C-alpha cells in the first residue's frame, strides 16, 4: 500500500522536473517536451569514466602491437613488412566472383540464414576429409568451425585456464596467442627454440618446475621464427606430454606454405592418445578476411567450445562457410595455392638476397623452409627504440621481436619481416629503408 502523501510528493517532483503537466479540468498528462530546467541539468550529468569501468583483468591489450600494425599499414607511402597476409592484388577476384554466383544459385537464401553453432555439416565433413590427408583422423563430432584460428585459441584458453595457471610456449611465439593466455590470467613461461624448433631436450625440467595446464606450440614454420620442429622432437614432445598428462595445443596456420624441404606431419597425426588439440585456418592458405578456422579435438572439448560459441557469436558466418565449401570443391583453393607458393618462394629469395647484399656485420637470418616470415637478428650494438622510431620515419613497418618473447625481455635484437604480402619493388625498397634505419640507430 502506498501512502497518499508519497504519491503527491512524487507527482510534485515529476511536475517540477517537467515530466508531467497538470491542468485544472484536464487532469495530468505526461509532458512530451523536456523542460528548460532539464536541459540545463544535462550540463551537469557526469561523463562515464570508461577507463575506470573496464575490467582490466581481461582488457590488457591496449598496447597490442597487432592492432597498431593493422592501423598504420594503410598510411601513405608506408611499405609494410610487418603483417602476415596475402598480397591483396594476388587474389583472383574474378574466379571468386564465379564461385560466389554459383553459391547464390545453389544455396539462395540459405546463404543469409543462421547456421549450426558447430559450423555447416558439409564444411565440417570437408575439413575432416582434408585433415585425413594430413594423417589426422577426426570424427565429425570432433570438428568445430570457428571465426578464424584466433577464436579457437581463445576458446581453448577459456575452456582450460583459471587465473594463475601456467602455460608453456615456445620463446619466441605468436604474440596474438600470448596475449590471449595473459588476458585470461595465465602465467606464460617461454621455452627456448633453436633451428629444430622447441628445445624439447630441456622441456621435462620445465614441466616439473611449472606444472603447466598445457603446452602451446606452432610446430611447422613457426610464427615468428619460421623454424620447424623435427620429427624426433615431435615424438619426444608427445611422449613427455603423455608422461606428465599435459595437453598440447597445436596451432598450424602455415604448414601448407611449403617452400623447401619435406612436408612435416602434424603433431596431431602422430598423437596416439588424443592429447593434441589441433587448430587450423584458411587465413594463410587463401585469405584472412573470410574469418574461418577449425578446431579438432576430443568431443568433450568440442562440446565446450560449442557452448562458448553460443555465448560469443552463435555461429561462424554462414555466407563465408558456403563460399569456402565451394572454393574447396571447385578446386579454387588448390589453384590459388599452386599459383601463390612459387611467388612466396621468389619473394623470400629476393628478400634474403637483398638483406645479404648489404652485408651488415652480426645480422643473421634464421633459416626456414616455409611460412610467411623472416626472423632476423640485428646487430647487438643497436638502439632498438631508436631503430623502431627510424623505421617509422623512413616509412617501413616491421615487427620488433620483443613482444614475441613471453617474458617481454631478450638479450638480442630481433625483428620479424614478412615476404608474402609485398611486391618485388616493395621488398627491395623496404629492405633499403630498413638498412637506413639500422645505420641510423647504431650506437657510437
Ligand atoms: N596463429 C598464428 C600462429 C598466426 O600467425 C595467426 C595469424 N597471424 C593466427 C593464429 C590467427 O589467424 P586467423 O585467426 O586469421 O586464423
UniProtKB/TrEMBL annotation:
Keywords in alphabetical order: Aminotransferase, DNA-binding, Pyridoxal phosphate, Transcription, Transcription regulation, Transferase
A GO molecular-function annotation: transaminase activity
Alphabetical list of InterPro entries matching this protein: Aminotransferase_I/II_large, HTH_trans_reg/aminotransferase, PyrdxlP-dep_Trfase, PyrdxlP-dep_Trfase_major, PyrdxlP-dep_Trfase_small, Tscrpt_reg_HTH_GntR, WH-like_DNA-bd_sf, WH_DNA-bd_sf
Domain of life of the source: Bacteria
Keyword Transcription annotated: yes
Pfam families noted in UniProt: Aminotran_1_2, GntR
Family: In the C-terminal section; belongs to the class-I pyridoxal-phosphate-dependent aminotransferase family.
PANTHER family reported in the protein's UniProt record: HTH-TYPE TRANSCRIPTIONAL REGULATORY PROTEIN GABR, TRANSCRIPTIONAL REGULATORY PROTEIN
Protein name: PLP-dependent aminotransferase family protein
Organism: Fusibacter ferrireducens
